[in-house]
């Protein structure tokens, strides 16, 4: 067993079993770390709790809902706005968060009256919102507040509202994954089957395990609609509360994030006979295979192939451009559970990078199995790392970039390693064919950022070379550019690559600091001036 013992964790010998280095010829029977176990005391884990997994990951993306936490205000604040779950109702669920703000006196005397008062106040403050989700926290679970009774009482007094109760206090599981399970089962027990939908297509799906990070869901549902498929509900990105009550009428459950939402898919299959099909929206080949599988299920393979051919022809040259320049760059893949294996193989095959480490703070053994199997020899796999172990791993592996969350990402920047936000993205969406190119562009910009390279110069002792930060310009002067990059093109100082006029016109790269910049560059291009 090729366990890896971190120097900083030698005082906690149990931690040795939670990290491995994949050796030559190793298979999963000998290079799998222990995972999804209770946090070892003293290891200073950075895990999220079960409440966080229920509210922050799955519940909050529902768009037309008052999300209220029954507990101290800190629980609510910690799970508010840290991911970009956008919605088409002016991002209501991102703008507002609600808490009963339980204090010490409520712990002593009970907080049920406080909860009811807060529910009524919230509905009064937002009279157009008629749906609510209440989340249990550790404090109110320990004192035994009966949230279900209060919810029933309010619904009896206000017949036009509907309330969902999620009893998922922080201690309900080893990590946030425990909360995923809690809210999945609670939703199907309480709400699925309580409303009938309007069916408008012969092909009807639930899109499950999709949270619309920076518009991911919109990209995928566009493909489905082009295939003539009705998306009955999305669990839960940009999802409507009432649409999610109709999940029992779908013909197929299309599952994206198996770690967070396979539970409800399995229950829908058991209770309503709806089959489950796992797909992958990241990467050209995985996405193409996924669209083909859906097409095969409904007998509309030709529609899937038409989309694949059109999108591949449009975006493959750009992906190839980045792959040539990212070849061999070392990557630490430190995201959540499912992206561990959604990304590991695809980024190596399609972007040319090398994954030198994978980790997860809340993933199960199955996540590690799939992630490690897609890595090469020498890859370091870690379960539930803390900050010191992360720093030690960066010093040992010396990666060119890491994909992780904001907290470990900011830590990495301090030691000179650029990072991309694997949870909320830098410039998403990353799903879809164009999204995958956008991801490659963000990796490229992170690796070759002039600002990052200059930040590594110690002005008190280092020479400051005048060409530092101009790697991109030298690359673009090389031969062998894709054939489509001809004629009037311009090097954008903000995207770090050639942008054609059509790209700017269609806002393919909407990251100009000022609105006028794009028009100025277009004007230059249209005059035939080479930049």
From TrEMBL:
Gene3D superfamilies: Nitrogenase molybdenum iron protein domain. The gene is anfD. It comes from Rhodocyclus gracilis. Its cofactor is [8Fe-7S] cluster. Residues 49-447 form the Nitrogenase/oxidoreductase component domain. GO terms for molecular function: nitrogenase activity. The keyword DNA repair does not apply. This is Nitrogenase protein alpha chain. It catalyses: N2 + 8 reduced [2Fe-2S]-[ferredoxin] + 16 ATP + 16 H2O = H2 + 8 oxidized [2Fe-2S]-[ferredoxin] + 2 NH4(+) + 16 ADP + 16 phosphate + 6 H(+). Keywords: ATP-binding, Iron, Iron-sulfur, Metal-binding, Nitrogen fixation, Nucleotide-binding, Oxidoreductase. InterPro entries: Nase/OxRdtase_comp1, Nase_asu, Nase_comp1_asu, Nase_comp1_CS, Nase_Fe-Fe_asu.
